[in-house]
Amino acid sequence: MVRWTRSARIAYGKFPEAIKWAKEITEFINKKYKNQTTVYIDSFGEYGMIRWFADYKDLAAVEKLGNQILADQEYRQKVNQATELLIQGSIFDVVMQAF
After folding, report:
1. Cβ count within 10 A of residue 27
2. Which of 64, 65, 74, 98 has a Cα at 20 to 30 A from 5?
3. What is the pLDDT of residue 80?
């Protein structure tokens, strides 16, 4: 199994809007691509950190979905809505494998 995670920091003063957007983009991906991505907000630690998680069968499945999403104009439009909601340069992806 492979776990993908993305984290991003919310811009100052944009907390409610960023949370709403994070839920909407997650629902969009899950519905359109029949995915099981979940979104979380840190309760402790760094304030204003959003994290997405999804599990996949293997690395090929991660790559396949990533390529589909990146080619999706509707997805890109939704991501562009977050340019003022998230701190530029704070988005970080990690892919982990279970052993």
Report:
1. 12
2. 74
3. 93
For 89, the 3-state DSSP assignment is coil
Cα(82)–Cα(95) distance, integer angstroms: 23
Distance CA 65, CA 74 (A): 15
CATH number at residue 39: 3.30.70.100
Q: How many domains does the chain have?
A: 1
> Which DSSP category does 11 fall into?
P
For residue 35, the enclosing domain spans 2-97
**Each residue of 46-98: pLDDT tens digit?**
889 999 999 999 999 999 999 999 999 999 999 998 999 999 999 999 999 99
Kindly report the CA angle at 61 between 56 and 67, in degrees rounded to 5?
Answer: 125
